[in-house]
Write a structure and sequence with these properties.
single chain, alpha/beta, six-stranded mixed sheet, 16 strands
Length: 552
Amino acid sequence: MISKTIRTCFPIAAKAVADKAEDINKLNVFPVPDGDTGTNMSLTLASVVKELSALPADADMEAIAGAITHGSLMGARGNSGVITSQILRGVAEGLIGAGSPATSSDIAVALRRAVKVAFQAVRKPVEGTILTVLRDISTKADECEKKKLSVEEALDAIVVEAYQSVARTPDLLPVLKENGVVDSGAFGFAIFLENFVAAAQGRTAQIEDFSATFDAGTARDSALDRVKIEANDDWEGSEFRYCNEFLFKAEKRFDEEECLEFLSSMGDCELLVGSYPDYKVHVHSNTPNLVLEHMLQFGQVYEVFIHNMDMESHERTAKIHADQDAPAEPAKPLGFVAVAAGSGEAEILTSMGVDEVVSGGQTMNPSTADLLEAVNKVNAEAVIILPNNGNIRMAAEAAATACEDKQVAVVPTKTVPQAFSAMFAVMPETPLDEVVEAMTEAIAEVRDGEVTTAVRDSQAADGSPIHAGDVMGIICDSIDIVGNDVKQVTLDCIARMQDDEEGDTLTILAGADMSDEDFEDLVSAIEEAHPDLEIDPHRGEQPLYPVIFSIE
């Protein structure tokens, strides 16, 4: 179902943009350093993730479209964020009538709607920006529809076209070519698309094997080759100093076109998006007070942000100089790379000392290249990889073998809770082989469990039938509990594990599909059933598995 795909994949794609936000920020040269494009896009996407997570589990596409539209409008930051909000709104509206399963025709319809909505929002569209990429991928989707390609082929082709379009932006916009960069908003948009499609198709974020007849590697490399960050000391800036943006709730009907004309007279990059009574206003101006006074005639303004773009430009240049001039830090003795499927898992691992977290897990295993790239980013003489999934272990070991510049070892963790225990066993200033041995011994003491939903008919460890849609409790890789309720299956798993061997501590992670209320209810039920068990609950935000836990 499209609705489930969006709820699962949107947070993954949003996190990818957040992870690359600083790289996107440094590209920002047009029309002025208008805030931080990567940060603004990330905040906009994060607002959508929050709205989607608040929906009930059975929300339909219309409700999801409403959450995307409202969340992106309320959370939009900067010119790039506001335009992104309109692209998301258009795609979401276009998917309301899509079939199940979706077709390449549904994708084409959604992107055509996005083009219409986004271009309507911008009075003076500029070539070589995110809007150009949107139009190009819509054209590519139309071609895929005419060729009757599969959804998978169409999505692959759209991602490749997005990167190819990004690579062309300097040829369309002289200021980009002068500064040796691609358009920042366009680049961020392509990153979002690539990671959304990869997650939807159960692949790693690095797209490698396209089913469509396009050269994916050339497309991405061509775009990334244009991402050359340079300090821009001679940038003259805009004649307008302040970026004004705020939310506006109209108390009476007003002439939207006339309002846009007024905003245009105050500056440039004017945007008025939304529908009565809720709007987002954006304009570059030297008189933000007059902009606010004008809008106050028709209603209330709130969440007002006024950014001094001259100061932001100087700060950006100073930061790039600082990055370029900073002496290289000496390599530390030992670093860590770990794989995590959810944002909560990643945050916990980072807090425990993991240097690089690679996005991946069940159905979206990272490649050897992804893991090797992460290892190379760690400024350490030796690196330990925690794969956190049995299916990722071989890729981790291949990465360890392929690395020539530093010692690399793999501690064969199968779950993120095992990684937690392994990190607690790390002894600083200890030889690599001894650390690996201590971490491996630590994970041997961990018994783990997972709760998920069956996607096809099968059978449990005892031979009893499993039907698609059943809730399964997996204990140490064995499907031992089958039921129809996540809470009850979790309780049954814990009870059986405690009967087999009583543990002292339970670490439990809530998945992306489990609400805070349901998680609190589950933890309370566990506390009541096992009063002597110390419980350590966290939001893992992992997809597909509403509950992951371990007992030690």
